[in-house]
Amino acid sequence: MNFYRVSGGAAVVIMLACSQGVSAQATKPPAKGAPAPTTAAAPAAPPPGYVIGPEDVLSIFFWRSKDLSGDVVVRPDGKISLPLLNDIQAATLTPDELRVKLIESATRYLEDPTATVIVKQINSRKVFITGQIGKPGAYPLMGPMTVMQVIALAGGLTEYAHEQDISIMRNKDGKPVSYPFNYKDVSRRKNLAQNIELVAGDVITVP
User: Fold this and answer.
1) Distance between CA 64 and CA 49 in Å, rounded?
2) Are residues 158 and 171 in the same domain?
3) 109: helix, coil or strand?
4) Which SS3 state, helix, strand or coil, does residue 79 take?
5) Of 16, 107, 115, 121, which is least surrounded by CB within 10 A?
C-alpha cells in the first residue's frame, strides 16, 4: 500500500495489485470438469432476397443514442415502435431500406444520425405441411427449399398417404393457386419439375 500526499494535506491511498498475480489469474486455465466459457451465437445472415415480415425480431442501433436503440418485434400490421419515432413501417422492406427510413425519421431529433439494423430472428418465413405426414406443422424457410426437402424434414409420408395427390397451395398476386405434386414420380426421378422451390406461406397438403 503506498501513500501520496497532496498539497491540501489530505492523504490519497492507492492499492497497487501485484502484476504477477493479475497475470497468473488472467491466464489460469479453467478447473478440470468446469464448463467451458460460452459466447453468444451471432445472428444468422438473412437469406438472399430477404424482406422483413411480421414476428421477425430486429435490433435497431443508433450511434450515440440509446433512447432510440433497442430490440423490436415486427407487429402483425408490419410496423415497429421506437421511442420518439413512434410507429415505423418495416414489413416488405429489406433491412437496408428500413435503415434508410429510420435515418430519415431520426433527423428530426438527431444531427447526422447513423443507424444499424440487425436481423436477430426470422420468424415470418415459414412453410406449412399438413395431412398424412410424420410431423405436420410449420417449418422455417431460411433458404432455398423444395417440396421433397420439406417432406423429409416433416418425417416423411405416413402409411395411408395418397402420395400421388399431394398439392401445394400458394397465394400469388392475392389469388390462391395450387400446384400438383406426385411423390411417387419424383422419388423415381420422373417429372422432377413438380419438385418446385417453395416460398414463404406455401402450404403442402398430403391427403
Assistant:
1) 30
2) yes
3) coil
4) strand
5) 16
CA distance 159 to 183: 13
- Report whether 140 contacts 122 (CB < 8 A): yes
Question: Is the same domain home to 61 and 109?
Answer: yes
What are the backbone dihedrals phi and psi of residue 187, each rounded to the nearest 5 degrees, phi first? -65, -20
Number of structural domains the chain divides into: 2
Q: Which three cell numbers stand for residue 143?
A: 433458404
Dihedral pair phi/psi, residue 60, rounded to 5°: -105, 125
User: For residue 159, what is the domain's CATH number?
Assistant: 3.10.560.10
- Report the alpha-carbon angle 63-67-69, nearest 5: 55
Domain closes at, from 121, 149, 171: 121
Residues recorded for the chain = 207
List the domain range (segments joined by +) for residue 99: 57-121
What is the model's pTM?
0.63
What CATH number is given to the structural domain containing 100? 3.30.1950.10
DSSP 157: B
Per-residue pLDDT of the chain (207 residues; tens, 9 = 90+): 444 443 343 333 333 334 444 444 444 554 444 444 444 445 557 877 889 999 999 999 999 888 889 999 999 999 999 988 889 999 999 999 999 999 999 999 888 999 999 999 999 999 999 999 999 999 998 889 999 999 999 999 999 999 999 999 999 888 999 999 999 999 999 999 999 999 999 999 999
Which residue, of 80, 99, 121, is where some domain finishes? 121
Q: Which three cell numbers stand for residue 59?
A: 435490433
DSSP SS3 for 57: strand
